[in-house]
Amino acid sequence: MRWSQGFLPTLRDDPADAEAASHRLLVRGGFIRQLGAGIYSVLPLGRRVLLKIERIIRQEMVGIGGQEFHLPALLPAELWKESGRWDEIGQEMFRLRDRREADLCLGMTHEEIFADLARNELRSYRELPQIWFQIQSKFRDEPRPKSGVLRTRQFTMKDSYSFDSTWEGLDRSFELHLEAYKRIFGRCGLETIAVEAWSGAMGGKESVEFQSFSEAGEDWAVTCPGCAYAANLEKAVSQVDAVEDPEDEAAPERFPTPGVHTIEELARFPGGAPAERQIKTLFYVVDGKPTLFLLRGDHDLSEVRAVDATGTANLRPGHPDEIQESLGASAGSLGAVGVDHLTVYADEALRGRRGMTTGANEDGFHLHHVDVARDLRSPHWVDLREVRRGDRCTKCGTELEVRRSIELGHIFKLGLRYSESMGVRVLNAEGQEVPVVMGSYGIGLERLMAAVVEAHHDENGICWPVSVAPWEAVVVPVKVTDDRQRSVAERLYGELQEAGVEVLLDDRDERAGVKFKDADLIGIPLRVVVGPRALAHGNVELFERAAASSSEVAIEQAASSVGEKIG
RNA sequence: CGGGGCGUGGCGCAGUCUGGUAGCGCACUAGCUUUGGGAGCUAGUGGUCGCCGGUUCGAGUCCGGCCGCCCCGACCA
Are A112 and A212 in a shared domain? Predict the structure, then answer.
């Protein structure tokens, strides 16, 4: 394509409200434009990148036996009511009514719809396994869209669903996806790790996320340098570092702590206690009922674990007035000693601890000499603690690392979650009707594009890997009004097109600096510069964007050199 | 939903405190000069100052309400 005829709206300035590099560069480079919070238009440049990502995904999905569908995004409520998710999923689902007042929603995922097709059409185990996929828009009313296209309310997802007659079959389908996903991300130029994850609203028994390390991410990946262990922070486990408590037979004793509201303040307070010798008391409202979560002072609550422990996702931190009403004190002076009118969950790390310090349920006072076993009224012992950097791996004892990451894909062993609620059954070899064992697998495409930018950019712009670059090469005549330069540039443009290279010709009558800046910004991997310096020797320059390295080749060799470099 | 910030030509911003009828840089149009890393000069185009209401002779500016967007904490591809 000729640049002068294309729509490539690059901006000279960074957009004011973009912080993440991918957001900034994709907007500035003319790949995307914002329409609303978490709603983006994809421009021609961005579309080319997404189509390349789609092609890679499609090839790999077909490679594991996947068959492509295209389901509606506008979905009747009935199927969701059947699976129970119409009520389970809260405000994240976009809901609407048609003119007959029938409930509908915009698809946020398609388990129900594929399960409906499966139950209507599949009859025998001999038709299985099946892997069905689509590449389609998803809608999720995120509480907080952010970072450009990393987290949006409408996005494109490759979602696939496997149907097997046995659990072993599900394991195979899952494994096929695991390997396909590794290839997909690798081909897009991303290093990823597969981590154990929490299944969340999808349900099912086991799930794995693919994450790419990036400071722009919103997830945390816990990895063990000593063994293969890797997990999402939500799911990660670790050994508790043991704390030696002194002999302390004394009864709990109230003591004044004026102005102390936090663990840190109490640790610094004369006569206070180090964080690991305090009991942190968190007040939550769970299914409408006030509830306490107890942790070691230096540990943090994992809300996902709290959800697991309580069996409901309906929980939130208590409001100040609720706390006051239940315990007669404000957050910062709370404790569970003597509390028997609230449900209390205690983290395993507190088991057997004594000589502890905790709030006295009276503002400005704490208790010393608390013996967990003796002074707490039969709490529910559960795992509430969030893993942190430096904790030891449960498998090999090595210190764990915790790093920011972007969740690129998530694969789930759904098991019978949908086949039982929706009646997806086939006959097995014995002629008995059995529920189909399902899996579901998703990749967010725009997020994947953004993650590639996060991983491949510098101060001048994006450095696309050739596999997903909007154009593979750009031919830049330094001065288009120069006849020699223009004719050589046209010649190379033609030769490269002939050779099947996706090539741009920057035929704009702009100064060289403008054209170089733009080419850097939009990240074309290879730039062929046609200028007087090299032409004097019958050469042109080849500039490799990512390496920022330049070399000269003879005009006659230029097209084939480009072909070699872009592989 | 809690906290913080911001809405002024396409983009980036000033002007708001202290009311007087909208300005700068970039981009865009035309001309001349220039031409290897975002050129210079000249002349132009383009804005109901987020929306509604109020105060006032007069509102971008003051008051009230609403809407939108960004960032930080609880959710997910």
Answer: yes
How far apart (Å, rounded) are the C-alpha atoms in residues A82 and A397? Answer: 46
**CATH code, A492:** 3.40.50.800
CA distance A315 to A287: 6
Check if residue A501 sits with its Cβ under 7 angstroms from strand B. no
pLDDT tens digits for range A363-418: 889 999 999 999 988 889 988 888 988 889 999 999 999 999 999 999 999 999 99
Rounded to whole angstroms, the distance from the CA of residue A459 to the C1' of nucleotide B5 is 26
> Do A267 and A341 belong together in one domain?
yes
The reply to whether A479 has its C-beta less than 7 Å from any atom of strand B is yes
Query: Do A169 and A216 share a structural domain?
Result: yes
Same domain, A159 and A68: yes
Same domain, A374 and A407: no
Q: How far apart, in whole angstroms, are the C-alpha atoms of residue A180 and residue A439?
A: 15
Name the phi and psi angles at A469, rounded to 5: -65, 145
CATH number at residue A205: 3.30.930.10
A432 and A487 both lie in a single domain: no
User: Looking at residue A315, which CATH number applies to its domain?
Assistant: 3.90.960.10
Strands (E) located in A12-99: 32-36, 39-42, 66-68, 74-76, 95-97
Q: Which of residues 210 to 269 on A have a Cβ less than 7 angstroms from any strand B atom?
A: 218-219
CA A279 to chain centre: 33
Chain B bases near protein CB atoms (7 A cut-off): 1, 5, 11-13, 25-27, 34-39, 68-77
CB A489 within 8 A of CB A475: yes
Domain range enclosing A527: 471-565
Residue A37, nucleotide of least CA–C1' distance: B69
Helix, strand, coil percentages (3-state) for chain A, rounded to 5, are 30, 30, 40
Give a yes or no: residue A103 inside a domain. no
**Model confidence pLDDT, tens digit, residues A100-118:** 999 999 999 999 999 999 9
Maximum separation of any 2 CA atoms in chain A, in Å: 96
Q: Is the CB of A528 under 7 A from strand B?
A: no
Q: What percent of chain A has pLDDT over 90?
A: 73
Q: Beta carbon of A446 within 7 Å of strand B?
A: yes
Q: What is the pLDDT of residues A350-365, one digit of tens each?
A: 998 999 999 999 888 9
Give residue-wise pLDDT tens across range A162-181.
999 999 999 999 999 999 99
For A274 and B66, how far is CA from C1' in angstroms? 50
Q: Is the CB of A543 under 7 A from strand B?
A: yes
Cβ–Cβ under 8 Å, residues A180 and A63: yes
Q: Are residues A313 and A345 in the same domain?
A: yes
A341: CB within 7 A of chain B nucleic strand: no
Q: Are residues A217 and A146 part of one domain?
A: yes
Q: How many domains does chain A have?
A: 3
CA of A509 to C1' of B41 (A): 19
Q: Note the CA–C1' distance, A215 to B1, in angstroms.
A: 26
On whether ipTM exceeds 0.90, the answer is: yes
Q: Is the CB of A409 under 7 A from strand B?
A: yes
Instruction: Output the distance from A485 CA to B13 C1' rounded to whole Å.
Output: 39
